[in-house]
Amino acid sequence: MLKYRQISIAFICTLVVIAACDVFFRIPVLLYAGTILAYIAILAWGSADISSNFYTETLCRGKMDSKTLALTFDDGPDDRTTPALLEVLEKEGVKAAFFIIGRKAEENCSLLRRIDSDGHLIGGHSYSHSSLFDLFSRRRLLGELTRTEVIISNCTGRKIRMFRPPFGVTNPPLCDALKQKGYKVIGWSLRSRDTVISDEEKLLARIKARIRPGDVILLHDSLSQTASVTGKLIKFAKEQGYSFERPDKLLGIEAYEKV
Ligand SMILES: [Zn+2]
Fold first, then answer.
1. 128 CA to middle of ligand 1, Å?
2. How many CA within 13 A on the CB side of residue 86?
3. From the CA of 219, how far away is ligand 1's center (Å)?
4. Minimal CA–CA distance to 239: which of 121, 69, 61, 62?
5. What is the model's pTM?
6. Which of 114, 118, 155, 188 could form a disulfide linkage to 218, CB 3.0–4.6 angstroms apart?
7. Number of Cβ within a 10 Å radius of residue 1
8. Within 13 Å of residue 126, how many CA atoms lie on the same side as its CB?
9. Are 193 and 225 in contact (CB under 8 A)?
10. How far is the CA of 124 from the centre of ligand 1 (A)?
11. Residue 186: helix, strand or coil by DSSP?
12. Cα–Cα distance between 85 and 66 in angstroms, integer?
């Protein structure tokens, strides 16, 4: 939370200086309001931009000096869509990371086991993926993280260390909870926007235009087009001279706690 602390200290100091000046001069109310609004705007940016490293260190990309990429999939496991994606990844010999929702994993334990036995990584992505997740208390967030961790552990025997925040949003209570769990926060450098672009060709064109060496690509295995898009994306990237690495290798981290 280095940037968050620095900005907060700077904000308080600025307010103190303005208040001190107010003793001697008439300071317009607008200056107070502007300072507070600027602080709120910076906090909002820090929460929404996962690569900002505002509240916590977030790993978003690999080194840019070699043409390697990593694929990551959120919001599964889904028995309607994930199996087809696993077939594509197996055919192409690509190992990816799956940031799973605990509630879904609970219902799809055998699928989660298959993700693991196929050589892919599993990370947490909350238990509920509630739209109110970012408003939860630290205690409730810890409950979500632990519940998901236990489900994954019971199912695969793996103790996870990677977490991707739902909606890519971070805030102080979540970062406190993640720190307590000892999780590494994993972001992305290329957001496909597959949850809003349903047209396969448009989606592929967007990704193709943005690919850079070291990219961590965000897709969702809960969507029907993901298997097909991923197959085409892998073929395109290979033609362009890229190779795929499992995200733990690209980012240089341990994906699981050693048992
Ligand atoms: Zn998600």
1. 10
2. 20
3. 10
4. 69
5. 0.92
6. 188
7. 18
8. 20
9. no
10. 10
11. strand
12. 26
Give the environment of ion ligand 1: residues with CB less than 5 A.
74-75, 166
For ligand 1, the distance from its centroid to the CA atom of residue 167, given in whole angstroms, is 6
Output the CA 30–ligand 1 centroid distance in Å. 39
- Strand ranges in the chain using DSSP code E only, listed in sequence order: 58-59, 68-74, 97-100, 121-124, 162-163, 184-186, 190-191, 216-220, 243-244
Pick left, alpha or beta for residue 257 (phi over 0 → left; psi -120 to 50 → alpha; otherwise beta).
beta
CA–centroid distance, residue 234 to ligand 1 (Å): 22
For residues 10 and 92, give the distance between their C-alpha atoms in angstroms, rounded to a whole number.
Answer: 51
Mind listing the pLDDT tens digit for each residue in 176-228?
A: 999 999 999 999 999 999 999 999 999 999 999 999 999 999 999 999 999 99
The single residue listed with the structure tokens 């208040």 is 19
pLDDT (tens digit, 9 = 90+) per residue, 215-226? 999 999 999 999
Bond before 213 cis per omega within 30 degrees: no
* CATH architecture for residues 58-251: Alpha-Beta Barrel (3.20)
Return phi, psi of residue 73, to 5°.
-130, 130
Tokens of 167: 């909606």
Which residue, among 99, 94, 42, 33, has the nearest Cα to 69 in the 3D structure? 94
161, 165, 169, 173: CA torsion to nearest 10:
-60
Q: How far apart are CA 181 and CA 160, in angstroms?
A: 10
Strands 162-163 and 243-244: unpaired
Range 11-15 contact pairs with CB under 8 angstroms and sequence separation of 24 or more: 11/35, 11/39
